[in-house]
Amino acid sequence: MKIIDLKNLDESFFSKIEFENIDFTLQIIEDVRKNGNKAIKEYSKKFGDGDISCSKLSEEEINNAVKKVDEKIIETIKFAIKNVKEFALAQLSSIKEIETNINGNILGQRIIPIESAGCYIPGGNYPLPSSAIMTVVPAKTAGVKRVIAMSPKIQPVTIAAASLAGADEIYGIGGVQAIAAMAYGSETIQKVNKIVGPGNKFVTSAKKQVFGTCGIDFLAGPSEVLIIADESANPDFVAADILAQCEHDKDARAFLICFNHNFANQVDKKALEFLKNLQTKSIAEVSYSKSFAVVVNSLEEAIRLSNEKAPEHLELCIENAKNISNKFSNYGSMFIGNYSAEVFGDYVSGTNHTLPTNQVAKYSGGLSVFDFIKIQTYQIIQKNSLEQTAHNASILAQQEGLLAHKLASDIRIS
Hints:
The chain is an alpha/beta fold. It has helices at residues 23-35, 37-46, 59-68, 71-92, 129-142, 156-165, 175-184, 201-210, 235-246, 261-276, 281-289, 299-309, 321-324, 342-347, 386-400, 403-410; strands at residues 2-5, 98-102, 105-113, 116-120, 146-150, 169-171, 194-196, 215-216, 224-229, 253-258, 292-295, 313-317, 333-336, 373-380. The strands form three sheets. It has a six-stranded parallel β-sheet with strand order 1-11-10-9-12-13, with helices on one face. Strands 6-5-4-7-8 form a five-stranded parallel β-sheet, sandwiched between helices. Helix 9 (235-246) crosses helix 10 (261-276) and helix 15 (386-400) runs antiparallel to helix 16. The longest helix is centred in the first third of the chain and has 22 residues, at 71-92.
């Protein structure tokens, strides 16, 4: 981990990953669109997933997978599902259908769930049942009728998590071909209205290319955490949280903002000590070597730097963390206080771990129940209030030169 003073910080700290349209992903998408299951199977075999079926897992296959998972893991999955669902329900209750009267006209909004959603669950380096929970649960809580889950080299624990979370269909398909299948459909797969979930740069590029054909949540890059820590923080906690982020993949990044070199050195020393015996060392040490510790002179500098960085995960390991938390405006999810480890949000606390990276947090929040509903407006223009409405609409239509617009307004009061 590089330890530097704020004055020596360069643009590499703020660098973003650009998700260009990777040529061969476009070729795969087009092939799947034209050739369906044949193309899905060919690319799955080519990229190491073996001979796959393009049919959804049967009830028997799902039940057999669940039986293979340790009962303690099943109970933990159910605990996580319960918490994520409770938070999603609380979110859903924060919005409501409305109807109001403005100038004698009735205006309103309805809350309508989308009809279908596709949840992509990565399975490259590790099986990720937590991603099944975080994508499927809010979709079903929102009322989506058809939720499908796709994951490469799908493991029994991922099947169990997707099923218990409420997925209506589960497929052992991954990569670009999975995104294309969800966007365009095939002989055995019905296309969806929206695709959500994390993935590598090829999956992300594919999501970018199918956007418009269907909706997506956002373009997420490698995982990241930014930790702001003062002398009240525990260096061991901070070091462990940094490595928890670094082990995701070699492109993951951890950032520490602290107030003196002594604390940064303590964290670095402890992280290197932990790394020696870490089973995921081969991945974590690469990411750790490219991560930063930035020493600043004040909390104001730390806040400014954090808001500019807009990290996926933001940990506040500082005194009176809750009292100053409202000064932070750009982050995917915030973890307040020394005991609020980011790992809890990854798994079981209840907030969603599918979060914006790459500074997307400057304009978007993380995946939630709101991603699976539409706010649809309506209006009833009353005859007794028509004149004022039509008169003003006609003036603007005349100004814009759209005379058929003016006609459609004027004809109603002529």
